[in-house]
């Protein structure tokens, strides 16, 4: 089936010249310009990475399986609600034309026929309760008070016109009405809406397959004996769970070495099942350099100094024959997590065909928040609600993983802001459901 | 494996009397008292249902698989961070005692030895950079400026005391420090914290298996031809997705009939894989009655008039030999969805061992919200954020499924409130991530 194979993307390399005198070296499109300090802005870097990745190919999926996936088609109703015309009041389903004679006077009594009639015969009526479906042929409801019953016939007291006391088919929802649009995520209520409209399959994009590769020779897997100078790998677990939370199918692979040949082998092995590779390390410079050297060997690489704190050093590549996107996260846990939210999350969402922007909300700072001009600062914060108002306090701990676990938001301080005073509103990215 | 079998719960029936002269009929514990209007409050009904259900049995799970699950143990750190003492400054790792002679004067120069030394010999020093792990035996760092190097030896200029310029092992996180507590849900950052502390397995409860059974003879599955008087089943799809969103593993089964024998067969067949059965119907009285008759036949049933709008009629049972909890939702889509959030969601969360209360937030009403005294009103609403403040407007549409799809919150108007004016704060349950 299509989505278990590599989703080949159009290569973004510059096309070979027609008259190939000199062999053109494939390269990434020109990166964005740098700022005065020689840095790339977060917005530019994000846009650049997103320009190098295409959404996965859509395919049809049964409705329930598509829960939490992103729709890649507009969907219109194929049915009317109510599906048939129904009575709004208790009374008699009638043909309005039968109620008057040729002289515009009330006609003769109507014969009451059984509700199971195939089609309402002329000159007859069916007893209906409010909400009942009208028999075919009926086009109005004569309220009970507008007739008297005598010997199985309805004697008319008042007339009604076509459509009176009838809820027409499609009154609540009409065939062709737009139900959901491309880019909508299928939540429970959207799924109910589609099912109720008779739709059992939708075009969505598959969950992106993200391979998280952990390397670094002083790292060991948690649960193993931790020797002198070694530390348990945290980043690949945290980032794997974070990618899962965004909606990816995640595979975590560990190659706890800095040997380029071994790292290269693992990356190459994993490319077949990866829509995106994310590299995490143990945070030492040599860990980082080992991976970058392999990336450069396997594909086209962009190394950038991004005007962001933490997370300045950012490396991205298109790797292997299929140009699989690969994002290398900084080694420090906080930098890695923040970089995930700044860059990996939008990439995963783009693969899913979803909106890539982090839904930012605003919160009142309860303590001063300081930043550096010219850098986007992403501080760890704790958002609380007081009544209808959100507050946020920065959180800072010497133990990086403890700090992350204590936070439930990232405080986003733009490049042009140096300080946010207590009582001022600041932008935050919420990290958990509220 | 344990969690693929039925999780037998302690029966809640009244125990058989020891001298069983008269056969005691098993029955549910006494239900809560009714209010003056003969209704049961939502709080009482919720508490009653929760008292009839026990959390699933916990089992050990590998860390990444436990993402989004609820911890059922307290977890303390098994490691120190940093794991070993490290230098805070560039200088020389030393034994503080070596720095002074018997007369409290600066001692003789220390011999510089290689950093790979097994254990720092007395009278020697190792050159360290800030962040380097100290060799065993060293207990202080002499800053570079406190010594001069001459012929492979450090001549002392100043002394330091034990622990000076050293970040002690466990300074950031100490063995035994509480990392996470029972009841915590494992998010990405919690997983990072545990992994970094060397923990690769946790005790969690399995995802509850929820079987959603759709019945009602005028219902057809979406995608099928919809005949005259038939409607496409929406509720079971919507509720299945809603249960999945809470964290359950969901199986949807349809038996589109009101024949009690057929419904009974399907329910009986499904009990083996159900931690909770949820019944949805097409909303006609006869659909509802058919299921209730089967429930009464299969187990102990509680039928209640709950002081709630919508969703007054609530039926719950403990079904089959294993007393599997079964919740019957009202047939109207809005009533079904609201009842799911009021009662099914807490039951699923209790099975998971999680906090069962809906995390309520407050929002400013932008339009008047009216309710009925004595009833908990759950209106459909749309929450928007203006700066750091949440606003909510009620949404009301003739097409019930359209109304649900347009809403992103339920406005919770307590029994004692008749009206909320524009500008006043009201409690809301958010239905999606913000």
Automatic annotation (TrEMBL), chains A, B:
Pathway: Cofactor biosynthesis; molybdopterin biosynthesis
Biological role: Catalyzes the insertion of molybdate into adenylated molybdopterin with the concomitant release of AMP.
Signal peptide: none
This protein's UniProt keywords: Magnesium, Metal-binding, Molybdenum, Molybdenum cofactor biosynthesis, Transferase
Any one biological process term the GO annotation gives: Mo-molybdopterin cofactor biosynthetic process
GO molecular function annotation: metal ion binding; molybdopterin molybdotransferase activity
Protein name: Molybdopterin molybdenumtransferase
